[in-house]
Write a structure and sequence with these properties.
The chain is an alpha+beta fold. Helix content is about 35%, strand content about 35%.
């Protein structure tokens, strides 16, 4: 028998929180990926959901070999943990919407996460109407462990609030 890792413990709680909200009808989970990269010995867990049809939210949990080995070998030089990132996929009418999106996100999250937006559009010859989208990435630039498990509910709530605000 083995003890579950920080990553596994956080993943179980994150997954449970999201499925509970799906069951309550607050969100609708549209995809789930549980990936193991054997080349880099890293793990990634992605859950994608929507609260409205205009915005998709993906929560990513990630841990690599350095974190796993620091935890298993109890290394002092590396603090074990995993990382969380949140992505929002939003349709926009033009690039000016990006500033408004960032302002909306700051109204909920403050200045804690780093916000990065990538604007894209599908290419097609002679296309008259171009549909733009932006993928907004929130990076928290810190590791989490079991001590922050109780914060996952708030993190998900903020993600849902952000999705609803961006979908207005």
């Amino acid at each position: 028998m083995f003890d579950p890792t920080i990553y596994e413990n956080v993943k179980v709680v994150l997954e449970g929180e999201l499925y509970d909200r799906d069951l309550e009808g607050e969100i609708s989970i549209v995809s789930r990926e549980d990936l193991v990269d054997l080349a880099s010995l890293s793990r990634k867990y992605l859950m994608k959901f929507t609260g409205n049809e205009d915005v998709y939210v993906t929560i990513e949990l990630f841990a690599d070999l350095a974190n796993f080995s620091a935890e298993q070998l109890q290394l002092d030089q590396i603090e074990p943990g995993c990382e969380i990132k949140i992505y929002f996929d939003v349709l926009i009418s033009d690039e000016e919407d990006c500033a408004e999106i960032e302002e909306d996100i700051r109204s909920i999250w403050g200045y804690r996460p780093t916000i990065r937006q990538t604007v894209s559009f599908p290419y097609a010859e002679n296309q008259q109407d171009i549909s733009l989208s932006t993928q907004v990435l929130l990076e928290f630039n810190r590791k989490i462990n079991e001590d922050q498990i109780s914060d996952l509910g708030d993190l998900i709530e903020y993600a849902i609030q952000t999705s609803n605000l961006l979908g207005e």
